[in-house]
Design a protein that fits this description.
Elements: E1 7-13, H1 20-23, H2 34-37, H3 49-52, E2 58-61, H4 73-81, E3 85-88, H5 93-102, E4 106-108, H6 110-115, E5 121-125, E6 130-133, E7 138-141, H7 147-155, H8 158-169
Parallel strand pairs: 1-2, 2-3, 3-4
Antiparallel strand pairs: 1-5, 5-6, 6-7
Length: 170
């Protein structure tokens, strides 16, 4: 996460039921690193997205964001494009877990999503259970991450987290 506690970025709005096939179309799934996948993030909806998004910007989705195929490539592509976090009304279950596993912070906040406009400046604090929309001057409460998820996301994903735990025990 940006400073370990909060993520600040411009909102990029997408709708309901954004599936992993449009987050990273299958033709780009021959790549497996965030650096290789990043240029194709959201290519199924906006082929120029990766060239427009700034480091730390926030993808805002509606209900069931990340539904579809169980592909870890989808949250990796978002990370590779520089996305700092995803906030949505709800997430596909597998996308939620894959995002945590690769270190992409995600937050459910239907109220923020309903009131957000393209380009709004958002501040997300998943560790504190807070989110804010600066244009509206409004704060939202969200469920804070449990400690187990905090540790994984702060480590940069499940693999770095496990490696560090193994090193500290050995």
């Amino acid at each position: 996460m940006n400073d370990g506690a909060s993520i600040r970025g411009k909102a990029w709005l997408f709708g309901d039921h954004v599936d992993t096939d449009v987050i990273i179309p299958v033709r780009y799934c021959t790549a497996f690193t965030k650096e290789e996948l990043g240029p194709y993030a959201m290519a199924g909806l906006d082929p120029a997205f990766a060239s427009k998004v700034a480091l730390g910007d926030i993808v805002v989705g509606g209900v069931n964001f990340g539904c579809g195929s169980s592909r870890e490539n989808a949250p990796l592509a978002l990370l590779g494009a520089g996305v700092g976090a995803v906030v949505a009304s709800s997430f596909g279950r597998i996308f939620f877990r894959n995002s945590i596993n690769v270190g992409l912070p995600i937050i459910e906040c239907p109220e923020l999503v309903a009131e957000c406009r393209q380009g709004d400046e958002l501040i997300l604090s998943p560790l504190k259970g807070e989110a804010a929309n600066e244009r509206l001057g409004k704060n939202y409460l969200v469920s804070p991450y449990p400690e187990s998820i905090v540790n994984i996301v702060e480590a940069g994903g499940l693999t770095p987290y496990v490696r560090e735990r193994l090193r500290s025990k050995g």
